[in-house]
Amino acid sequence: MKAKSFVRPSSLEEAYNLVKASPKNKIVAGGLWLKKGNAEAETLIDISGLGLDKILDKKEYVEVGAMVSQRELEKSPLVPEVIREATAAIMGPAFRNIATVGGSVYGKYGFSDIVTVLLAYHVELVFYPEAVIALDEYVKKPGFFDGILTHVRIYKDNRKAFFKKVEITALDYPILNVAVSKGKEYKVVIGSRPLVACVCEGASALANKGEKDFEKIAALAVEETKFGDSIATKGEYRKQLALTYVRRGLEEVNK
Predict the structure, then answer these.
(1) pLDDT by residue (tens digit) across 15-42?
(2) What does each C-alpha distance from 120 to 92, 116, 187, 244 come to in angstroms?
(3) pLDDT of residue 41
(4) CA distance 194 to 6
(5) Mind listing the pLDDT tens digit for each residue in 140-153?
(6) pLDDT digits (tens, 9 = 90+) for 39-59
(7) Which residues touch 230 (CB under 8 Å, ≥6 apart)?
(8) DSSP line for 66-116
(9) CA end-to-end span of the chain, whole Å?
(10) Considering Cα of 194, then 144, then 47, then 33, what sign does the dihedral take?
(11) DSSP 197
């Protein structure tokens, strides 16, 4: 990406005003995907100095700053184990030291492991100036939210979770992600389809009604989810993988 200027604001208000000044002004998170793009920007806005790089225990939830690196997320004892394991499987440590949680979540990348596993939990996104939106609602909305993502809230509900990443090699994009969790309610999630991850609402509802035929729930999850082709694989193969790993996920969280 090419840019005409680079600014490091001293406050969120200043950063927000810069974002609103022009649609060509862009927030810099880790900057990994900006570097790979060919688009041009007027101004790149670096928010790394605004104190958004901490993971804090807020009693009801764990608060993850948008500028927390994936490496810090995977190492934090405050974060649920399955989220840490899913994060640790992303590329290599050098990549995870640069990539940020906020950049991964805000971008709604179809290949995102983090979005998939977070959707299996009760997660809220906090935007400046004043907005809080559930992650599952955010990924369903077209486009991006009008604000600066500052924090990700992971609520504590003693949820038991399962995550599976299917890839050709350790440094490839995933060809499928599946997450399943069980707390007060079930959540079944399919990602890298290759579209952005989504909660399989029908399958989750069926599990919540007490259905114990996990093959039936998995079949519904696949039926209600759209799969596509990519260079790596075909949509039909993704369906078969999803059918297998949703069933296995349900089995695991019920042990």
Answers:
(1) 999 999 988 888 888 766 665 556 677 8
(2) 24, 7, 6, 18
(3) 79
(4) 33
(5) 998 888 899 999 99
(6) 677 889 999 999 999 999 999
(7) 175, 194
(8) TT-BHHHHHH-TTS-HHHHHHHHTSS-HHHHHH-BHHHHHHTT-TT-HHHH
(9) 48
(10) positive
(11) P
| Cα dist from 136 to 57, 94, 133, whole Å | 22, 29, 9
Phi then psi for residue 89, to 5 deg, are -90, 0
Q: Which structure tokens are listed for 67?
A: 């500028």
Q: Crossing angle for the helix pair 201-208 and 214-223, nearest 10 degrees? A: 160
pTM: 0.94
What CA–CA distance (Å, rounded) separates 18 from 108?
Answer: 22
86-101, pLDDT tens digit by residue? 999 998 899 899 999 9
The model's confidence at residue 3, banded by pLDDT at 50, 70 and 90, is: confident
Task: Tell me if 102 sits within 8 A of 52, measured CB to CB.
Answer: yes
d(CA 65, CA 54): 5
CA–CA distance, 227 with 242 (Å, rounded to integer): 10
The torsion angle over the Cα atoms of residues 70, 71, 74 and 78, rounded to 10 degrees, is -90
d(CA 171, CA 96): 12
